[in-house]
Amino acid sequence: MIFNPHEVPVVGIDDHLPAVPAERLQPQALRERFRRPPHWEPEVASERPTGTRAPAHASVLVPLVMREQLTVLLTRRTEHLRDHAGQISFPGGRAEPHDADATATALREAEEEVGLAATHVEVIGSLPIYSTVTAFLVTPVVALVQPGFEPRPDPSEVAEVFEVPLPFLMQPAHHRRHAFEFGGERREFFSMPFSSAASAAPYFIWGATAAMLRNLYRFLAA
């Protein structure tokens, strides 16, 4: 649908909204927030599908790595995949019949895609289901991750594994709104470009991944 999202005009930057306070971005504070969640509403719950494929359940792991400051582990998908090729994504994928629940799907997919074993993972909660443009009903499973694991990306699915500081992503001054016309309708999406000294070009976090991060922001800021 969008061949180059970088070229879609930016219609707004949310620098008027406050960043999530640093004390809320500590592991124990996050555990407590998910244990006793506030009243809140996700800002973005779904995208309008562009095809006729039947909806399918999926899960992603939102891995918060417990370094000096928390980071979010993300992947860049390989270019040959059928869905969301080349995009920045959380580890995750389609639910399988043998998965006990959404959490089991997220943990299995994280181990298969990036070699993140469940022994390093402490699941602390989940965010509301997000419906993607490709008709996946995605449950974001949020987890704290002990550092010390060695990423082993599956080359058939994952081109790169990298981390972004959580405080950067929880600061709306870094959230851009884009708008475009498709099929006579106005559509919008978020992006959160992130530059790293280890990468020649900025990571363009957008679409469903950016939307789920935006919902995490709303949850933590409520």
Q: Which band does the percent of strand residues land in? A: 25-35%
Tell me roughly what share of residues is in helical segments.
10-25%
Based on DSSP secondary structure assignment, what is the total number of beta strands? 12
CATH topology label: Nucleoside Triphosphate Pyrophosphohydrolase
The gross shape turns out to be globular
Question: Low-confidence parts lasting 5 or more residues at pLDDT below 50?
Answer: none
**Cα-to-Cα separation, first versus last residue:** 33 Å
Continuous helix count: 4
The chain-level mean pLDDT equals: 91
Spell out the helices and strands N to C.
EHEEEEHEEEEHEEEH
Overall CATH class:
Alpha Beta
Counted up, domains total 1
* CATH architecture assignment name: Alpha-Beta Complex
Please, what is the CATH homologous superfamily? Nucleoside Triphosphate Pyrophosphohydrolase
* Whole-angstrom Rg: 17 Å
Q: Biggest sheet: strands, sense, closure? A: 8 strands, mixed
- Structural class, by secondary structure, is alpha+beta
Written description of the protein model:
- This protein is α+β, with helices and mostly antiparallel strands and 222 residues long.
- It has a single domain, classed as Alpha-Beta Complex (Nucleoside Triphosphate Pyrophosphohydrolase), CATH 3.90.79.10.
- It has 4 helices and 12 strands, in the order βαββββαββββαβββα.
- A hairpin with a 2-residue loop joins β10 and β11.
- It is globular.
- It starts with 9 loop residues before the first strand and ends with a helix.
- The model has no long low-confidence stretch (mean pLDDT 91).
